[in-house]
Design goal:
The chain is built from two helices and six strands, in the order αββαββββ. The protein is mainly β. The protein has a six-stranded antiparallel sheet, with helices on one face. The chain starts with 14 loop residues before the first helix and ends with a strand.
Protein backbone atom coordinates (compact mmCIF):
# COMPACT_ATOMS: atom_id res chain seq x y z
CA UNK A 1 0.00 0.00 0.00
CA UNK A 2 1.15 3.51 -0.69
CA UNK A 3 1.44 6.03 2.06
CA UNK A 4 -0.22 9.38 1.41
CA UNK A 5 3.14 11.05 2.03
CA UNK A 6 4.82 9.18 -0.85
CA UNK A 7 6.91 11.51 -3.01
CA UNK A 8 8.43 8.91 -5.32
CA UNK A 9 7.74 9.82 -8.97
CA UNK A 10 5.24 7.44 -10.53
CA UNK A 11 5.33 6.25 -14.12
CA UNK A 12 1.85 6.25 -15.60
CA UNK A 13 0.82 2.73 -16.61
CA UNK A 14 0.01 1.99 -20.25
CA UNK A 15 -2.76 -0.45 -21.18
CA UNK A 16 -0.47 -3.47 -20.70
CA UNK A 17 0.43 -2.26 -17.20
CA UNK A 18 -3.23 -1.50 -16.45
CA UNK A 19 -4.02 -5.16 -17.08
CA UNK A 20 -1.36 -6.12 -14.51
CA UNK A 21 -3.15 -4.03 -11.88
CA UNK A 22 -6.71 -5.08 -12.73
CA UNK A 23 -7.97 -8.65 -13.03
CA UNK A 24 -10.69 -7.51 -15.47
CA UNK A 25 -10.55 -8.28 -19.20
CA UNK A 26 -12.69 -7.51 -22.22
CA UNK A 27 -15.55 -6.81 -22.16
CA UNK A 28 -15.30 -5.72 -18.53
CA UNK A 29 -12.02 -3.78 -18.46
CA UNK A 30 -13.19 -0.17 -18.14
CA UNK A 31 -9.90 1.74 -17.97
CA UNK A 32 -8.15 2.73 -21.20
CA UNK A 33 -5.56 5.11 -19.80
CA UNK A 34 -4.22 6.55 -16.55
CA UNK A 35 -3.48 10.26 -17.09
CA UNK A 36 -2.65 11.39 -13.54
CA UNK A 37 -1.69 9.28 -10.54
CA UNK A 38 -0.59 10.19 -7.03
CA UNK A 39 -0.59 6.86 -5.15
CA UNK A 40 -2.51 7.12 -1.91
CA UNK A 41 -4.02 10.49 -2.93
CA UNK A 42 -5.72 10.80 -6.31
CA UNK A 43 -6.00 9.38 -9.80
CA UNK A 44 -7.46 10.44 -13.13
CA UNK A 45 -8.24 7.78 -15.73
CA UNK A 46 -9.96 7.71 -19.12
CA UNK A 47 -12.60 5.34 -20.48
CA UNK A 48 -13.26 5.69 -24.21
CA UNK A 49 -16.90 4.79 -24.78
CA UNK A 50 -17.31 2.99 -28.10
CA UNK A 51 -20.38 1.89 -30.01
CA UNK A 52 -19.14 -1.70 -30.34
CA UNK A 53 -19.35 -2.37 -26.57
CA UNK A 54 -21.82 -5.19 -25.86
CA UNK A 55 -24.12 -3.22 -23.53
CA UNK A 56 -25.23 -0.96 -26.39
CA UNK A 57 -27.01 -3.77 -28.24
CA UNK A 58 -29.66 -3.75 -25.51
CA UNK A 59 -29.26 -0.43 -23.65
CA UNK A 60 -31.03 0.93 -25.66
CA UNK A 61 -31.41 -0.10 -29.33
CA UNK A 62 -31.54 3.08 -31.39
CA UNK A 63 -30.69 5.22 -28.34
CA UNK A 64 -27.44 3.88 -26.82
CA UNK A 65 -26.75 5.09 -23.26
CA UNK A 66 -23.99 3.76 -21.00
CA UNK A 67 -25.65 2.18 -17.95
CA UNK A 68 -24.99 3.94 -14.65
CA UNK A 69 -23.79 0.69 -13.13
CA UNK A 70 -20.99 0.55 -15.74
CA UNK A 71 -20.01 4.15 -15.03
CA UNK A 72 -19.83 3.12 -11.37
CA UNK A 73 -17.72 0.08 -12.28
CA UNK A 74 -15.33 2.25 -14.31
CA UNK A 75 -14.90 4.57 -11.31
CA UNK A 76 -14.31 1.61 -8.99
CA UNK A 77 -11.68 0.17 -11.35
CA UNK A 78 -9.91 3.54 -11.47
CA UNK A 79 -9.80 3.46 -7.69
CA UNK A 80 -7.48 0.45 -7.78
CA UNK A 81 -4.64 2.79 -8.70
CA UNK A 82 -5.12 4.83 -5.54
CA UNK A 83 -4.52 1.95 -3.17
CA UNK A 84 -2.22 -0.39 -5.09
CA UNK A 85 1.48 0.45 -5.01
CA UNK A 86 2.37 -2.00 -7.75
CA UNK A 87 0.69 -4.73 -9.78
CA UNK A 88 0.28 -8.27 -8.50
CA UNK A 89 0.58 -7.51 -4.77
CA UNK A 90 -1.71 -10.49 -4.11
CA UNK A 91 -4.41 -8.18 -2.78
CA UNK A 92 -7.31 -6.52 -4.55
CA UNK A 93 -9.78 -3.80 -3.55
CA UNK A 94 -13.42 -4.90 -3.83
CA UNK A 95 -16.53 -2.74 -3.76
CA UNK A 96 -18.41 -2.71 -0.44
CA UNK A 97 -20.72 0.28 -0.85
CA UNK A 98 -21.89 3.22 -2.91
CA UNK A 99 -23.22 6.37 -1.28
CA UNK A 100 -24.51 9.70 -2.55
CA UNK A 101 -24.63 8.45 -6.17
CA UNK A 102 -26.01 10.94 -8.66
CA UNK A 103 -26.11 10.60 -12.43
CA UNK A 104 -26.24 13.99 -14.15
CA UNK A 105 -25.54 13.42 -17.86
CA UNK A 106 -26.14 10.58 -20.28
CA UNK A 107 -22.94 8.96 -21.52
CA UNK A 108 -23.05 7.80 -25.14
CA UNK A 109 -20.79 6.07 -27.65
CA UNK A 110 -18.10 8.47 -28.83
CA UNK A 111 -17.80 10.11 -25.40
CA UNK A 112 -14.57 10.05 -23.42
CA UNK A 113 -15.33 9.47 -19.77
CA UNK A 114 -12.84 11.16 -17.45
CA UNK A 115 -12.73 9.35 -14.11
CA UNK A 116 -11.44 11.37 -11.14
CA UNK A 117 -11.01 9.86 -7.69
CA UNK A 118 -9.62 11.06 -4.37
CA UNK A 119 -8.91 8.78 -1.45
CA UNK A 120 -10.84 10.01 1.58
CA UNK A 121 -9.58 7.36 4.00
CA UNK A 122 -7.86 4.00 4.23
CA UNK A 123 -7.62 2.18 7.56
CA UNK A 124 -7.17 -1.51 8.36
CA UNK A 125 -7.98 -2.62 4.84
CA UNK A 126 -11.15 -0.52 4.47
CA UNK A 127 -11.44 2.78 2.64
CA UNK A 128 -13.52 5.33 0.75
CA UNK A 129 -13.07 7.18 -2.53
CA UNK A 130 -14.74 10.39 -3.56
CA UNK A 131 -15.44 9.77 -7.26
CA UNK A 132 -16.68 11.76 -10.23
CA UNK A 133 -17.01 11.10 -13.94
CA UNK A 134 -17.13 13.87 -16.53
CA UNK A 135 -17.58 14.15 -20.29
CA UNK A 136 -16.09 17.24 -21.95
CA UNK A 137 -15.84 18.91 -18.54
CA UNK A 138 -19.52 18.30 -17.76
CA UNK A 139 -20.41 16.23 -14.70
CA UNK A 140 -21.87 12.85 -15.68
CA UNK A 141 -21.83 11.08 -12.30
CA UNK A 142 -20.57 11.51 -8.76
CA UNK A 143 -20.53 9.21 -5.76
CA UNK A 144 -18.65 7.97 -2.72
CA UNK A 145 -17.34 4.42 -3.13
CA UNK A 146 -16.42 2.22 -0.16
CA UNK A 147 -14.09 -0.74 -0.56
CA UNK A 148 -12.23 -3.46 1.30
CA UNK A 149 -8.82 -4.83 0.39
CA UNK A 150 -8.94 -8.62 0.27
CA UNK A 151 -6.71 -11.50 -0.71
CA UNK A 152 -6.84 -11.74 -4.50
CA UNK A 153 -5.68 -15.36 -4.67
CA UNK A 154 -8.30 -18.08 -5.12
Amino acid sequence: MSSPESTIPVTLPDVQEIMKFLPHRYPFLMIDKVVEWEPGKRVVCVKNVTFNEPQFTGHFPGNPIMPGVLITEALAQAGVFLVMNSPSEGKIPVLTGIDEAKFRKQVRPGDQLKLELELERLRRGFGRFKARATVDGELAAEMVISFAIVDGAQ
